[in-house]
Amino acid sequence: MSPVVQVPAQVSATPGALLHHVRTGRAKSRAELVALTGASRNTISNRVDQLIAANLLAEGGRGWSTGGRPPTLLQFNAEAGCVLAVDLGVTSVDVAVTDLSARVLATAGHPIDISAGPVAVLAEAERLAREVLTEAGLRDEDVRSVGVGVPGPVEFSTGRPSHPPIMPGWHDHPIPDAFGRWAAPVFVDNDVNVMALGEMGVGGSVQDVLVVKVGTGVGCGIIVEGRVYRGAQGSAGDIGHIHVPAADGRSVLCRCGNTNCLEALASGASLLRDALAAGLPVTTTRDVVELAAHGDGAALELVRDAGRTIGTVLASLVNFFNPHRIVVTGGVARAGLPLLSGIRESVYARAMPLAARTLDISVSDAPDLSGRVGAALMAIEGYLDEDSVREAITS
Amino acid sequence: MSPVVQVPAQVSATPGALLHHVRTGRAKSRAELVALTGASRNTISNRVDQLIAANLLAEGGRGWSTGGRPPTLLQFNAEAGCVLAVDLGVTSVDVAVTDLSARVLATAGHPIDISAGPVAVLAEAERLAREVLTEAGLRDEDVRSVGVGVPGPVEFSTGRPSHPPIMPGWHDHPIPDAFGRWAAPVFVDNDVNVMALGEMGVGGSVQDVLVVKVGTGVGCGIIVEGRVYRGAQGSAGDIGHIHVPAADGRSVLCRCGNTNCLEALASGASLLRDALAAGLPVTTTRDVVELAAHGDGAALELVRDAGRTIGTVLASLVNFFNPHRIVVTGGVARAGLPLLSGIRESVYARAMPLAARTLDISVSDAPDLSGRVGAALMAIEGYLDEDSVREAITS
Known about the structure:
Helix content of chain A: 25-40%
CATH topology of the largest domain in chain A: Nucleotidyltransferase, domain 5
Structural class of chain A: alpha/beta
Largest sheet of chain A: 5 strands, mixed
CATH class of the largest domain in chain A: Alpha Beta
Largest interface: A-B, 77 and 77 residues
Number of domains of chain A: 3
CATH architecture of the largest domain in chain A: 2-Layer Sandwich
Oligomer: homodimer
Strand content of chain A: 15-25%
Strand order of the largest sheet of chain A: 5-4-3-6-9
């Protein structure tokens, strides 16, 4: 591609693209598809008919007339199948079954220990998946694809973790094989990339966005013009080990062997450590977050301080990346305002005014759910790619 | 656009796209254009004939036969016009005239002070442009477009600087107006974005690259899959004011009002300041760089130390952005190895192994020239966009 001026992006009119335009709300009728793509009325009509015959589109009601017969509205048939969404965390597994618009039909989950290894953990994820399918009254044949988010780097093309630092025993494990029961494609990605998709939602986005996950560790999903940016080895967004000088000059050893990595100073794990050291009555990070939510002064200050530390790193990234917005998610994001105000304090104090001027920093509306919704969206997009749609309409 | 799985990028077969494919070496004959785009032989033939009639493509020689008549090779007619390339620095102006392949035909430049303001500086740039045109034996009518790089943030769509911190008096000045003599479009961008284009070259790139300019200030051009990434307000890559704790605990005031910004600790300006403080016989940053190049121990250590400081910031950005490569350019990059080894030392010590494993960090082959070549490429791409090409072949 050319460096400055792109050959103009054509709005594609392949069957897969037409389905995409309707599904994401970019076009609602044959006429709008013609206007959007510039393809002929005939071409659009034929392809829409094929998509209706394949049960992927449906006609539903009439739109407003702009003169002449009111157009027949097109709808994506979100019930043409379902997908399984697996959100694997360091300390939890959550599985959902959703329709093809990522609407959750049933979900189940519980605490786990990721270091129990891939065989045990994935067997449990598979069991939960069967459970939610049954609960939703769906059959194995209804499953169109499976999306899995894991808390570590993944080779996206093969679905295998690549030297994940906090998933001992998982390196190179073929995660897709665990879901062989469903003769469906399995898509695996890093949990922060998956959460970033979840935060963008079904309609997607054309903005530049950072989705910062503050869970046991800290990571960042990077969205460039609405698409996940992965980098050269797929490790982009790995901000947990950025070096941060501690404000009080202390030196904290990180599990990676370096000192004063971001997540050694400000993460779910460090919050718990510091809360225990301060003598707070807690046993999990969630307890600390809940104490803060109930207004406990010491817990509040710990959370806000973690926010300040995360904010110092984000201030640098705001200068570098100049995002439209930052969304904070993950377990610690449930703390809400105290975390956010700490982050904002540091970002607005240190980032350049031009980059910070209209920057929106917010906490996810549903930090617990974005992993599952994102995994579902990844599965849906994977299923509805060009080849699958072509196959569906010709078979 | 969809978040995970894109509607497949179609290889466009518009006239502008065909020209682009030939110009960047992606296709060398009608048959290769057919193979690349999937368009019909007839469509390709007609459009190529139009481009030849418009003098943008030329037939040149025969390729290897793969059975049958050997194909006629197509060439981009780089002499169908010329562009003016203006590289404005804080302390220098350089202007070149190039052909449509960014080959420099004539160039001229000299020291200036950007704070003399836009009227005086741009009048001088315009004078130099007339001079190089005459030197190359070209006329005003041969100029197809003008590219200008400036050392500050620019609103790309209007070519006006936006609160540039080191260009007093330039805010909102309509730079394109200064080149009205040539009835040609004028493209203005931040110098680091322009240099990044120059480093990518005519063929472009599909990689993720950081082009770090170490001149009077420090900035970074960000290339995502071969294209300049600008961010929400166009200020992406503004790394000069990222906060860096000084290794020795000192606090250095930056001209922006904050302390210990990257460019307050490691830039051409800080090198000169520290060299003067150390009693070295220098009056410009260039003197310091040349002392180091001649093996002066004190100058070498200052340059290497600047490299180490820049490297601490780049280590964080490597974790975040996971680039394929980093190219260092700008005046201080002329120092070469001592700067590079300082940068590498910090990056490899602090960046995550996965992101650093195959990362290539190098110094520009021609740090003095990348601003002019980049400005020329910006002008050429701007000129050869879809609309202009369509106009050329129908007029």
